[in-house]
UniProtKB/TrEMBL annotation:
Keyword line: Membrane, Transmembrane, Transmembrane helix
GO CC terms of this entry: endomembrane system
Species whose genome carries this gene: Rhizocola hellebori
Topology of this chain in the membrane: Multi-pass membrane protein
One Pfam family in the UniProt entry: DUF1232
UniProt xrefs under InterPro entries: DUF1232 (IPR010652)
Protein name as catalogued: DUF1232 domain-containing protein
Amino acid sequence: MASSMRRAAAFSAIWRALTASKAGPALSQRLAALPRMFWFTVTGRYDGFGRLFAISLATLYVASPIDLFPEAVFLLPGLLDDVVVATWIAGAVLSETERFLLWEQGRAPGRRMKPEGVIDGEVA
């Protein structure tokens, strides 16, 4: 159940990225942001460590010869699981780079951007 929900989330992220309005970041901006995103994450200024770690593990899974369904034994399932993981990676990278670019635009020096929908206030 959880596995199919993750796949659905990955496909919906890719669909949103592909059908997004032209106002979103261009692919060239997203690719140029990757090194900065990794650097800000490693130095602790950006909070994307968990997501980048998951993307890195998924990339290693696709690239490694060790697989859940080896292609040599199970041709179709072996390819399909790699396609699903690669699709999730693409959607996650598109989503995370857009999130990073929004964070980068809205951050003040030394401060993290507040999550969307958060309103400053005081507790009385």
